[in-house]
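Input.
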Amino acid sequence: MTESLLKPAFGAPVEGSSPDGAPVVVAIDGPAGSGKSSVSKAAAQRLGYGFLDTGAAYRALAWHALEHGVDTSDATAVLEVFGDFDYSISLDTADRWVRVGSVDVTAAIREPRVTDAVSGVARVAPVRHAVTELFRRLVASAALPGVVVEGRDITTVVFPDAPVRILLTAAPEVRAARRSAELTDQDAAKVAAALHKRDAADSTVVDFLTAAEGVEVVDSTHLDFAQTVDAVLSVVENTMGARDGR
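Output.
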């Protein structure tokens, strides 16, 4: 696999980065429909950080597998197709793209057929291990003060030592309503059923509904988008301030 980052050249540590020069990581977990991607992206923009949507990697692999006619419930077949998975992603909040080889799959990985196949590829342990290492390399080599990383097991597996770890959640009916509003071309009941199915399938791989020790919970059930972003930024400010003795 190859890795692509932002346009800025790598160089000296940026002011505000961690003491060893590596970007500060804000790790955000949460279930489907919790607003992880949109809230994380907005928070990254406000902070001047990069943004990594880890779910895009699994979606891209699912797309890659489907393009090769692979049954994503077959772990052996998924591992085989993973061998030539040439993946790259932008960390730039203003220029979002995902590619597999030379193909821009930014839109394609959001198709329902890909969503249905994601859990199959994500539950293959060797794939998760390799992709986790990819995420760590992407973040470590980014010439940025920090990166907001969102996904399913970011606070517990991918970046368990991140200085800021947040579980973003909301009541199931609220998450379903928000997802339905995003997908205006799909029936609300079907969207809710798909969200429940996705949560059930993914919960067999990782626990994304319970905050691990040291993880701050932001429950957006009764918050609008702007309030949720503010709540996340408040956790970042308070945590980093405490870390830096402010």
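Strands lie at 24-29, 50-53, 87-89, 98-100, 103-104, 146-151, 164-169, 216-219.
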